[in-house]
Write a structure and sequence with these properties.
single chain, 11 helices, about 55% helix
Amino acid sequence: MVNKDKMKAFEVLDKLYPKDIGFLFADTPFQFLVSVCLSAQTTDAAVMKITPILFSKYPDEKAISKAELSSVEEIIHPLGFYRVKAKNIISLAKAIVELGYIPDTIEELIKLPGVGRKTANCYILHICSKSAIIVDTHFKRVAKRLGFTDEVDPDKVELDIKKHYDEAIWSRLSMVLNLHGRKFCYSKNPNCEACPVNAYCRSVKPSK
């Protein structure tokens, strides 16, 4: 059952935030996919500082597939978990070169090295223009606080929301809840007093 307060919160945020919301930008679908893979456990801003350097040297899947691991590690070192990420994006590039294309379904994308459901959903939404629920830390936090889900595991959060909410709002819900988490609903010390949907939030902090 969809609680009316949840939909009221969504309606407020839908009107408040820009129609076009994006956090990572790239020149090609492959570059976007790699950027999302690199964004794990770091900020989008940090990724956007590193990817121009990475892609100026290795602009496409063929180039990265032939890259020396140590070279990629050196470039992406500031992002953290650089050894695992470097290995993953080289393996990802090799897999795409072998396939000859980048899949356009979640089921096929998650078979690629280093691509989980969050990354796959990002690609599906922003590159394929298909409906998607992107469960990153911001979305998961806000969705839980506003009562869109009681699940904790990211995959279960995605599937729970897809089950209970119309596909027509999936993509927009993903983006506005994500942006709201960055602007008001912080992990620590959320700005509940100024939050435009505090009247609908089950986790709002009482005013002092």
